[in-house]
Write a structure and sequence with these properties.
With 754 residues, this protein is an all-alpha fold. It has four domains: 164 residues, no CATH class; 206 residues, Methane Monooxygenase Hydroxylase, Chain G, domain 1 (Up-down Bundle); 130 residues, no CATH class; 207 residues, Methane Monooxygenase Hydroxylase, Chain G, domain 1 (Up-down Bundle). 79% of the residues lie in helices and 0% in strands. The protein contains 28 helices and no strands. Helix 3 packs across helix 7 and helix 9 runs antiparallel to helix 10. The longest helix is centred in the last third of the chain and has 44 residues. It is elongated, with a radius of gyration of 29 Å.
């Protein structure tokens, strides 16, 4: 019970609920004010304008938010006018629906915020069908009131922003820490769960994508929030937490271990990994608690449990060495030591977050040059040329726009000729359900129908108990607020709440609530069927057909990251910024690749061509990024020896293999080669360098020097890490080259012949 109350408190304090309240207040005030002034007939138009222009009010840059709402107001007004004036003429109306549906849905090429503006435009078109205005004067008055409603919402949004200026950023930071905590716990399971690794890895793909999305939004919100006077203390606090959350995520990524090697080294001695696994779990849970405290503002828990778990992890290294004995224990000990160093760094970043949350005034200042920080922003391109480039059947958005247009025109004509009472409910279902991918459309269709049936059942039971108008009004209003609040969390619940809200809104005007419920359910099912059938039959977009460019980009970013790490090894001080930028780009590329794989899993089985091959390519790409990150992380956090000639030879070999993998996907041929004999010599020399240090250490132990000094330990760690990871990367790049070659023959060449 206590846990449920805590989750309820977190929800009520969340920015999602705040957004629901914001929209609720923006709609309620005009209704109440105009009712008392005697102009209640104007309230619905203002409420429509308010509701229509709220979707683009999402976390991020204030400037982009304001611009999006203003564009949304203008778009909604123009679209509403076009529909209202075209209504009496069926042929003209169909033409207007076609043009609006296609052009407005195509605006989604400009990114997520633009897709929400696009949704507002489509919603305005559908709501216009419910508006009964006959004369030009009535239409113009309605448009003016709608515009007023949109501007009123902008004012309300601004006031809420001033009252709680950092609520959105705090929620994003909280969500980010929560996801990273879950990710860290998932990585802990990978250490020992040998039989469940594939299943766990697929779960990591989802979490990686979600974390990267949160970090991208936070970059926009925090790095563009700088003012000439500098940051406030609170902004400084948020930025410190954000930077530490990125470091934690990157550290976790850097420790995607060679699990086959782990299994080989430890075999039946997996018990020595339990301390590391437990520490990961404890740190993950601690991050989740901190994520909750960002919203609750309660006392930070004691850190002793973290320090105790870290201490036990250190002890497990000594226990392993005592149990197995040197030199046999050396390789396992170095693995455990590298793991310990990484967890120690993780814990330090967690402690940074703790200190910042405990006392804002003691937070250290972050020095980010504007030029440097701007490089970490992923800027959306808004040129007209972007739209022109997507006017092709190769574009997923273009195909989606054509499908959506067909579905809306068909849905309207279907309702028109069958004289369905509220045809616009069918159209509303179509725009809410239809997505560029069939898999997501199918998922939303199921959730929409189930949610609508649940909502209808609840509404029906309430109507059976009471016909009180006050009760209906309260339920309609509160259902809308909760529906908006849950929009990003549970679409099935949203569908149920929206149904309840609509049923009671209509029940206020139509005394026969049972009829309203009946039509609502029937129209939703009709709209859902049209959406899912259209998505399957009309220019369907299957993920496997659009995956090539995502794969190519992931390979290119992997190669760039590898080369940036090579430069970092040569001169960490000069090349760190370039390395960080390359790391950010490859993380985003891998996130997109993971998202693409998730979409593939949602497609029908018959369309998941070479599923296991695609999974192999995605997994190898992910593993390569982690292996490279592991080397980069070691270089940044240790004083290293100069990069060897052999290191550079292997970098060239791996880079060449990645380039060949790219070439395979682009269906080209390449003559680029690296002499295998030179590569083999370089590989052996790196491995021998570690063996040489290992032998020297053995001789030192024989002489009685059992305690190892830090310099020797770091030298052994570096030699072991570099030699093993470079050989591992070489093997992975070769596997990637073979996999992409098979992908070319089984998928790409087949696509070209068709």
């Amino acid at each position: 019970m206590k846990e449920k109350l805590k989750h309820l408190e977190l929800f009520l304090k969340s920015s999602d609920f705040n957004r629901g309240i914001r929209i609720g207040v923006a709609i309620a005030i005009p209704f109440a004010l105009l009712y008392f002034l005697g102009y209640f007939e104007y309230a619905p138009a203002i409420a429509v304008g308010t509701f229509l222009n709220s979707p683009s009010d999402i976390p991020g840059s204030i400037k982009r938010k304001v611009n999006a709402i203003l564009i949304s107001i203008l778009l909604s007004m123009v679209i509403t006018a076009a529909i209202l004036f075209a209504k009496p003429f069926l042929v003209v109306l169909i033409l207007v629906i076609t043009i609006i549906s296609f052009i407005v849905s195509l605006l989604s090429v400009y990114g997520f915020r633009a897709s929400l503006v696009s949704f507002s435009g489509l919603l305005a078109m559908i709501i216009a069908f419910a508006i009964q205005k006959q004369t030009t004067q009535e239409i113009l008055v309605h448009l003016g009131l709608m515009t007023l409603g949109g501007l009123w919402y902008l004012v309300v949004s601004y006031v809420f922003q001033k009252l709680a200026p950092k609520k959105d950023q705090n929620q994003l930071l909280s969500d980010s820490l929560l996801l990273i905590g879950e990710y860290l716990k998932l990585r802990a399971k990978l250490l020992t769960k040998k039989t469940k690794r594939d299943e766990l890895l697929k779960k990591t793909f989802v979490l990686q994508n979600q974390i990267n999305e949160k970090h991208e939004t936070l970059r926009e919100a925090l790095l563009t929030a700088r003012k000439r006077s500098g940051r406030s203390r609170y902004e400084e606090k948020q930025l410190l937490i954000f930077v530490s959350s990125i470091k934690i995520f990157e550290l976790i990524e850097a420790k995607h271990l060679d699990y086959k090697m782990i299994d080989s080294i430890f075999g039946e001695r997996k018990s020595f990994l339990k301390a590391s696994k437990k520490l990961n779990k404890i740190m993950g849970n601690h991050l989740i608690v901190l994520s909750e405290l960002l919203i609750q503002n309660e006392k930070i828990p004691n850190k002793d449990v973290l320090l105790k778990a870290l201490s036990k992890t250190k002890e497990s290294i000594n226990q392993y060495v005592e149990s197995v004995q040197l030199p046999e224990a050396r390789e396992g000990a170095l693995v455990l030591q590298n793991l310990y160093d990484y967890q120690e760094q993780l814990l330090e970043e967690i402690r940074v977050i703790r200190r910042v949350m405990a006392n804002v005034h003691d937070a250290s200042k972050i020095s980010l040059k504007r030029e440097s920080s701007n490089q970490f922003l992923t800027l959306q391109e808004y040129r007209f040329n972007v739209l022109l480039q997507n006017l092709s059947l190769k574009s997923t958005i273009f195909r989606h726009s054509l499908r959506l247009t067909f579905a809306l025109v068909f849905g309207y004509l279907f309702g028109y000729f069958l004289e369905i009472q509220n045809t616009y409910w069918i159209l509303l279902t179509i725009i809410v359900i239809m997505r560029p991918s069939y898999g997501l459309t199918r998922l939303r269709t199921k959730d929409r129908i189930i949610g609508t049936l649940i909502g209808a059942a609840i509404a029906l039971s309430i109507v059976s108990i009471t016909q009180n108008i006050v009760v209906y009004s309260i339920l309609a209003f509160s259902s809308l607020i909760f529906a908006v609040s849950l929009l990003q969390q549970n679409y099935k619940s949203v569908a149920a709440l929206v149904t309840i809200s609509i049923v009671f809104v209509y029940s206020l005007m139509n005394p026969d609530a049972y009829e309203v419920i009946q039509y609502r359910v029937l129209d939703t099912i009709i709209g859902a069927i049209i959406a899912i059938v259209t998505n399957y039959l009309i220019l369907p977009t299957w993920e496997i057909d659009n995956q090539k460019q995502i794969l190519v980009n992931a390979l290119k970013m992997n190669k760039n990251y590898l080369l940036a790490t090579q430069e970092l090894y040569k001169n960490p001080d000069i090349n760190k910024l370039h390395y960080n930028l390359a790391r950010k780009e490859v993380f985003l590329a891998i996130s997109n690749l993971n998202a693409s794989f998730q979409r593939l899993t949602q497609d029908p089985k018959s369309k998941q061509k070479e599923f296991e091959l695609v999974y192999e390519i995605v997994t190898i790409n992910q593993t390569m990024v982690s292996a490279i990150a592991s080397i980069g992380n070691f270089i940044i956090n240790h004083k290293t020896t100069p990069a060897s000639k052999e290191f550079d030879i292997l970098i060239d070999k791996i880079s060449n293999s990645l380039q060949l993998a790219c070439t395979n996907l682009q269906v080209k041929t390449s003559n680029a080669k690296v002499a295998e004999e030179i590569v083999e010599k370089a590989e052996n020399k790196l491995l021998n360098a570690y063996q040489k240090l290992s032998n020297l250490r053995d001789e030192s132990i024989k002489k009685g020097n059992t305690e190892i000094d830090q310099k020797t330990l770091h030298a052994l760690q570096e030699a072991y890490l570099i030699s093993n990871h470079m050989v591992w990367l070489k093997s992975l790049s070769e596997s990637l080259k073979k996999a992409t070659n098979k992908y070319k023959k089984t998928i790409l060449e087949n696509q070209l012949t068709h």
